[in-house]
Amino acid sequence: MGLLDDLRGKAQQVIGGNEQAIKDGIEKAGDFVDSKTGGKHADKIDAVQRGASDFVDQANDRPDSAPVADQTPVAGEPPVTGEPRQPGL
């Protein structure tokens, strides 16, 4: 498994079951950047928002994108709990 496949798998784990919240965050982040740049780069920001939202949608269409709660942890990696890790733990 290559680095990109590994990153894609990790992204799918995070996305599983949280699609709408992630898409809402993408929209809010894009709108924030757009407001700070005065709309100067609105077309580029909108394109990135669409691409990121499409990635979230496509992650659900893949057979290996089970919800986080349904996934078995990989040996040597901490289980995904949905809670942020604290430094040093």
Architecture overview:
This protein is mainly α and 89 residues long. It has one domain (3-65). The protein contains three helices and no strands. The chain has helices at 3-15, 19-36, 42-61. Helix 2 packs antiparallel against helix 3. The two termini are 27 Å apart.
Can you describe this structure in just a few lines?
This protein is mainly α and 89 residues long. Helix content is 57%, strand content 0%.
Task: Give keywords.
mainly alpha; 57% helix; 89 residues
SS class:
mainly alpha
What is the rounded Rg? 16 Å
Strand percentage lies at: under 5%
| N-to-C order of helices and strands | HHH
Query: Which oligomeric state applies?
Result: single chain
Distance between the termini: 27 Å
Overall shape: elongated
User: What composes the largest sheet?
Assistant: none
What is the number of strand segments?
0
* Mean pLDDT level: 78
> Counting H and I runs of at least 4 residues, what is the number of helices?
3
Helix content: 55-70%
List the helices and strands and how they pair.
Elements: H1 3-15, H2 19-36, H3 42-61
Helix pairs in contact: 2-3
